[in-house]
Each structure stands twice: as structure tokens, then as C-alpha cells.
Design goal:
- The chain is α/β, with parallel strands linked by helices.
- The chain has a single domain, classed as Aldolase class I (TIM Barrel), CATH 3.20.20.70.
- An 8-stranded parallel β-barrel has the order 1-2-3-4-5-6-7-8, surrounded by 6 helices.
- It is globular.
- The two termini are 14 Å apart.
- 44% of the residues are buried.
- The protein binds 1,3-dihydroxyacetonephosphate.
Length: 251
Amino acid sequence: MRRPLVAGNWKMHGTRASVAELIRGLRQLALPVGVEIAVIPPALYVTQVVTGLEGKAIGVGAQNCAVEPMQGALTGEIAASQLADSGCAYVLVGHSERRQILGESEAMLSRKFAAAQACGLIPILCIGETLAQREAGKTLEVVQRQLGSVIEQLGVGAFARAVVAYEPVWAIGTGLTASPEQAQEVHASIRAQLRTESADVARGVRILYGGSVKAANAAELFAMPDIDGGLIGGASLNADEFGAICRAAGS
Ligand code: 13P
């Protein structure tokens, strides 16, 4: 049985004051048993969140890491080793906002993925198609290429200690959600792609859905057989809403 994971990606949101408020809200949540929960604040607030959530069963992650695992001369970047040292357990790799706006290449993403694992972090590899790609009937092809690029560089075994997040770009921050059936089709294809190389890895890997997940639509998405939780953006900035999504993964 795969343990569901619900992770809240705070993106570039927050101030020290609003983060403190969110921590207070998270601390008060009744959390479901059997669900792994994480929040992913901007790197600047990781320490505040790690300290603030001490004793609460909520892990902390980062939104990005450097291509080099260890500290060194790389101005403006943060090494996976430093994230681990600060109490992170996860790191997002290849979020579509970074692929699209910052031009992160697939070669770079495999290095970040490897750097994260070298430091004991769990990479959460984000993949997904744009609206134009979906309309052109290329969804599965795009997602297979994005996943395939990491498998090719690092081998399927790397996914024994990683999470995949399917996030259709057209569903991110738009209020449009993939239907449970649309999401399931892609999740099943991701798992099938991994299965061609390793049945064990395919069976164990958690595949999260992301893109306008809310308390109101989470349960029907999480009920699908290949959806193992969610990567939540906007709705994770509200502790009560996030808590309700986490509980939906437990039911
Ligand atoms: P929204 O939940 O705001 O659509 O964001 C999804 C996302 O990009 C999470 O990484």
C-alpha cells in the first residue's frame, strides 16, 4: 500500500508575519493518520517553519535546489546539503513555473534530482503538459518525455526514493482542475512507463496530482487508483482548507 502524501507548495508567498500565522493554523489542525503531510515554503522561511512545526507531524520541503549537491561557489543558489541541514526532507524539482519562466532544462533537472537524493532529500519531480499540448493530443507524449529524461539520466531505481507530481500546466492557479478520469489516465501512464523498467518501483512510487486542488474536489481525485495524494498551491495557504484536503487523502 502506498502511503498518501499531501504537500503544500507555498510558492513565492509569505512574510514572516503571515508565515507565523499559517504555522499557528497548521499546529491546530487535526491530522489524519496514515497520510504523510508536508509544507514547502520559500527557502527564506524554511527555518521558521521547521522550528514552528516542531512536534507536529508535518514535514518541510524546499521549492528548488542547486545542481551541485554540496555548498560552494554558486551565488544565489542553495545546495541540497544546506536544505537537509536546515531540516528539509523534500525538494520540488522541475515545477512548471521554473521550467517555463526560468527556462530550467531537463539536463539541469536531472542534476538537481540527483543532488537532492545525494543529500538524503526526497525529490518531487513535477511534470505536466500545457493547454496547447493537451489540445494537440500530446499529453502522454510530453509527460513520458519529461519522466523519461530523468529515467535515462539516473535510472529507474532513482524513483524508489522519489515522488512524481503530475501537474497539468493549464490547471495550475486557474481554477480549472483535470477531471479525476483525465488525471487518472495520465497517472496510470506514468506508472506504466516506470513498470516497463521495474515493477517494484512502479508499485511503490507515489504519484501526486496538482492543479487547483481544493477541499471541494480533493476526495474524488484521491479516490482514483493511481492518484496517491496532492501537490497543493493556492489552497495550501489557508490552514483549514489544507487540513481538509489532507483529511480527504485519509478517507
Ligand atoms: P494551484 O493549487 O494554486 O493550482 O497550484 C498547483 C501547483 O502548482 C502546486 O505546485
